[in-house]
């Protein structure tokens, strides 16, 4: 059945407006085109014109974007309720509908059932599209086909062609299969008469260094009017390519720093009115309605070069043993070709004293770095990781005659820096005999997330330490786990494992606040998949396991122990020279047999979590 048969077209109702009990027929003004009847009031009229905006060829639909990749509960469900108030003719998705990324069919069924129950509340049709969280491995692909059939398809409504692409079916994430490209070519040839083509795909491959087959997609579209919609980045951008509009949407519940419209970080649904001249876009958000230029590609690039990836940052004051006073810095790195104005208000937290002006204003020239020193002291010496002051900042620049403004906040923090002890007579054997018992750090009390199956430290806990030999860094961990789960048929993240985050860059880089949208590339992860009866421990890494990294692990009477050796050459490559310190964090995951879901424990909150203190987890290299 075609979609035109299931969606009821609006019918034009005549409207009569009268102000008196009786009136003559010739006093009625009549508009044939609109069916409008209205009382005439002479030459002067209290209306602008009578050409009612009711083109029968136009229609409205809505688009929802990323719900997952760090789901914030309740947002998507709220969007469903609001869509029912707005009453679009149908709703289209750009993917990432479930958290996915698992081969556990029970987990996938639970997540899809939850999602399906939400969209079942819509009064209008909902069109699915696969994102990387929905369709990555073979099991997820099988589940998709069983539940929803095709992972790429098309439909036509009122001579507008909707093409739903799967940007993950090419054998790896963010890739198109040859079969899909062949299908697209055939489908476009069979629909040459469409007055407009709307392309929906999860990953905006045109924005990636590795564009896979996107050039082939554009070549097939080049002779027709089209518009492209995608998601994945969780940040809105309007761009133009080949004279056509390309939209990367923000979120409808996925992880986001939610810094607002100009950052492209907001929860929204996109309201599309399909006109004779193409789609008219409105972004419907909780805090207002913005047009399609809420964030353009030019604004995105300027934001990236002025603000993101640590360009506006506040490296923590690193201290050893005790902190009484020190100087924090606001670091402003402008990599754009235009200047901006920066102002900030600095307020004390927890009794810390700000020694200089609490309001600052500076001009930051193009392609320059400006640092603002902020001396701080505390009434009583402290030990630990603490936010001392809050910086509420504004940044403004002019673009094409318009003033573009951003607001944000940074914390000025003091973080303790620990020494890396030298290990004598070390051998890589997972015995932990070379380690002093006082050298170990315990995981934080309780579990930081997914605690449903957590029954206490005897169920799952860990302690860890770090030290150096003459040629390398050694990381040791002692895990308590009453049920070690291993399964070679499963990905390691649904087994028992732990991982180290390691950042060997200079202090100004490894000591800043890192968030989902403001992460500065440079740290690496080394994962240890737990040993178990009949299973050896495994090393995994992101990016990869560097050459020379070695592992020793063994099952113990309470769980397992491991030592990981990392040559200094790896740290020097990350640092770009001789390294002087490291930032380290440790996180572990526990998956028990017969229990759904994992328990996660951490030494510190993950570096991207709002509660983490900038610079926490730093270690210094002692003199040789």
TrEMBL record:
The keyword Signal applies. Keywords: Signal. The keyword Signal applies. InterPro entries: Calcineurin-like_PHP, Metallo-depent_PP-like, STPP_CPPED1. Residues 76-236 form the Calcineurin-like phosphoesterase domain. Residues 1-26 form the signal peptide. Gene3D superfamilies: 2.60.40.1190, 3.60.21.10. This is Metallophosphoesterase.
């Amino acid at each position: 059945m075609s979609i035109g048969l299931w969606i009821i077209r609006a019918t034009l109702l005549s409207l009569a407006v009268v102000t008196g009990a009786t009136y003559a027929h010739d006093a009625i003004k009549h508009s044939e085109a609109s069916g409008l009847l209205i009382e005439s009031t002479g030459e002067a009229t209290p209306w602008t014109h009578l050409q009612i905006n009711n083109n029968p060829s136009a229609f409205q639909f809505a688009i929802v974007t990323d719900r997952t990749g760090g789901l914030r509960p309740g947002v998507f469900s709220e969007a469903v309720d609001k869509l029912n108030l707005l009453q679009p003719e149908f709703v289209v998705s750009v993917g990432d509908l479930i958290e996915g990324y698992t081969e556990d069919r029970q987990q996938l069924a639970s997540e899809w059932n939850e999602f399906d129950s939400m969209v079942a509340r819509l009064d209008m049709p909902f069109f699915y599209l696969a994102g990387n969280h929905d369709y990555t491995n073979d099991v997820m692909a099988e589940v998709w086909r069983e539940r929803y059939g095709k992972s790429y398809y098309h439909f036509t409504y009122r001579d507008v062609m909707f093409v739903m692409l799967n940007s993950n079916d090419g054998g790896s994430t963010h890739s198109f299969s040859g079969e899909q490209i062949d299908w697209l070519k055939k489908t476009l040839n069979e629909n040459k008469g469409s007055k407009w083509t709307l392309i929906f795909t999860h990953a905006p491959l045109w924005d990636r260094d590795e564009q896979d087959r996107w050039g082939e997609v554009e070549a097939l579209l080049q002779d027709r009017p089209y518009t492209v919609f995608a998601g994945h980045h969780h940040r809105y951008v309007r761009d133009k390519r080949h004279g056509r509009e390309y939209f990367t949407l923000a979120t409808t519940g996925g992880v986001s720093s939610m810094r607002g419209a100009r950052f492209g970080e907001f929860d929204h649904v996109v309201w599309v009115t399909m006109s004779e001249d193409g789609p008219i876009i409105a972004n419907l958000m909780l805090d207002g309605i913005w047009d399609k230029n809420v964030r353009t590609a030019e604004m995105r690039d300027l934001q990236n070069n002025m603000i993101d990836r640590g360009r506006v940052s506040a490296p923590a004051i690193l201290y050893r043993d005790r902190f009484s006073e020190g100087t924090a810095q606001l670091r402003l790195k402008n990599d754009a070709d235009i200047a901006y104005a920066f102002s900030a208000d600095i307020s004390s937290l927890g009794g810390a004293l700000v020694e200089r002006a609490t309001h600052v204003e500076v001009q930051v020239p193009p392609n320059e770095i400006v640092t603002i020193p902020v001396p701080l002291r505390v009434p009583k010496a402290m030990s630990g990781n603490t936010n001392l002051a809050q910086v509420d900042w504004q940044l403004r620049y002019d673009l094409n005659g318009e003033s573009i403004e951003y607001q944000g906040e940074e914390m000025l923090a003091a973080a303790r820096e620990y020494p890396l002890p030298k290990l004598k007579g070390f051998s890589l054997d997972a015995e932990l005999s070379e380690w002093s018992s006082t050298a170990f750090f315990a995981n934080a009390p309780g579990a930081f997330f997914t605690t449903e199956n957590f029954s206490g430290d005897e169920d799952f806990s860990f302690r860890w330490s770090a030290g150096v030999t003459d040629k390398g860094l050694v990381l040791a961990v002692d895990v308590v786990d009453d049920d070690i789960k291993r399964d070679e048929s499963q990905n390691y993240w649904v087994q028992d494992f732990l991982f180290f985050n390691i950042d060997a860059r200079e202090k100004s880089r490894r000591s800043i606040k890192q968030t989902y949208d403001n992460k500065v590339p440079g740290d690496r992860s080394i994962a240890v998949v737990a040993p178990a009866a009949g299973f050896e421990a495994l090393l995994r890494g992101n990016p990869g396991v560097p050459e020379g990294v070695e592992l020793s692990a063994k099952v113990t009477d309470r769980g397992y122990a491991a030592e990981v050796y990392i040559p200094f050459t790896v740290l020097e490559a990350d640092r770009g020279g001789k390294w002087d310190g490291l930032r380290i964090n440790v996180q572990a995951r526990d998956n028990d047999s017969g229990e759904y879901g994992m328990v996660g424990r951490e030494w510190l909150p993950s570096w991207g979590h709002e509660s983490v203190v900038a610079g926490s987890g730093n270690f210094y290299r002692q003199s040789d």
